[in-house]
Specification:
InterPro entries: NTP_transf_8, NTP_transf_8_dom. By secondary structure, the chain is of the alpha+beta class. It folds into two domains: 249 residues, no CATH class; 82 residues. Helices cover 49% and strands 20% of the residues. The model has no long low-confidence stretch (mean pLDDT 92).
Length: 340
């Protein structure tokens, strides 16, 4: 039986305080006039400012009550920077004392560089095992050392259409970011497009991915200035991502999938990998899905039920893959049935 252990209410509250302060910090960096822009019925916010004789704009994020509240107190957020920095440092120290896992130096330096360049602000979403470990903070779920073990791989997903629509790009070209961290482009079947980088002398690998609308091919993400491998089922995973904070330095603001979507996606991916070159990863996929389903069935049953129904509603192939994975996880199958 899947064994759950949650962190204390103090630790869980401290994490969400840290997340709020990291979001406040990002908003305080707005230098011009926040401006609403409506695109196909959706509202987005941009920071518009003068750059010489022209008016430039920097993407802030999609409209939400939380973002509007921050924009309303923008001046206060700017004046609170020093106090906020000290409080973030204190909260990170508290979380470590509570048993939350810190992000290792290699991963943390990469996430920090991506955040500073604007990768997450511009729609990049951390996926894979590095994203999974951040559900410790979001759910207050103690993962334990064995579940936190990971490879050096970092996967970042983004929507192609969003990348084209934003009209903004990363503040530092990612090719420069990678060079500064001793990464080089990995060989690709399409020499004109780079979608993965490897670190010299190490095992770290960074890949950029996007949802496939047709064939699984390599396409461009102009907002990030890179290419990405298009894969099926990623649109479900990347829908409505959430902010998270990585415990590196005084906290790095990133973006991860919703935990219920991550769990269902892992069930699907595990079945797709069966019999293929990545078959050994299928067991890890199911283990992560089982743990998240157990936690969500207890703490967020409605969200879990909605994600399950949406995934199954996407067609018979989706439902068949979910059922095939759940057949290997009878306890997880029972937990899902109990929340429907």
């Amino acid at each position: 039986m899947t064994e759950l252990r949650f962190h204390s209410p103090v630790g869980h509250a401290a994490y969400h305080d840290l997340l709020r302060l990291a979001q406040d910090e990002q908003a305080s960096e707005i230098t011009g006039t926040p401006t609403r822009v409506t695109v196909k019925g959706r509202v987005f916010w941009y920071d518009k400012f003068r750059l010489g004789t022209t008016v430039a704009q920097r993407y802030i994020g999609p409209d939400s009550p939380e973002l509007r509240a921050r924009l309303d107190r923008l001046e206060a957020l700017r004046t609170e920077r020093d106090a906020r920095r000290r409080e973030r440092t204190r909260l990170v120290r508290l979380l470590r004392a509570e048993g939350y896992a810190s992000t290792d130096q290699q991963t943390g330096s990469l996430l920090n560089a991506f955040a500073r360049a604007g990768v997450f602000r511009l729609g990049g979403t951390l996926i894979g095992t590095v994203a999974f470990r951040h559900y410790e903070g979001e759910l207050g779920l103690a993962l334990g050392f064995d579940r936190l073990a990971q490879t050096g791989d970092i996967d970042i997903g983004s929507f192609e259409r969003l990348s084209f629509a934003l009209g903004d790009t990363v503040e530092t070209p990612l090719a420069e970011v990678f060079r500064s961290l001793d990464f080089a482009p990995a060989p690709s079947l399409d020499p004109g497009r780079t979608w993965r980088w490897t670190q010299a002398g190490g095992e770290a690998l960074v890949e950029f991915l996007m949802p496939a609308q047709g064939e699984e091919s390599i396409r461009d993400l102009p907002a990030l200035g890179v290419s990405a491998l298009a894969l099926r089922h990623l649109d479900f995973l990347l829908k409505d991502p959430i902010p998270a904070v990585s415990l590196y330095r005084s906290g790095v603001l990133i973006q991860i999938p919703r935990p219920e979507r991550f769990a269902l996606h892992k069930l699907i991916v595990a079945e797709r990998r069966r019999g293929g070159p990545d078959a050994l990863k299928a067991g890890k996929d199911r283990a992560q899905a089982a743990l998240l389903v157990a936690a969500l069935a207890e703490t967020r049953p409605d969200e879990l039920a909605e994600a399950h129904e949406e995934a199954r509603g996407r067609g018979p192939n989706w439902a068949a893959r979910i059922d095939a994975s759940l057949a290997r996880l009878p306890e997880t199958r029972a937990r899902i049935r109990a929340v429907l």
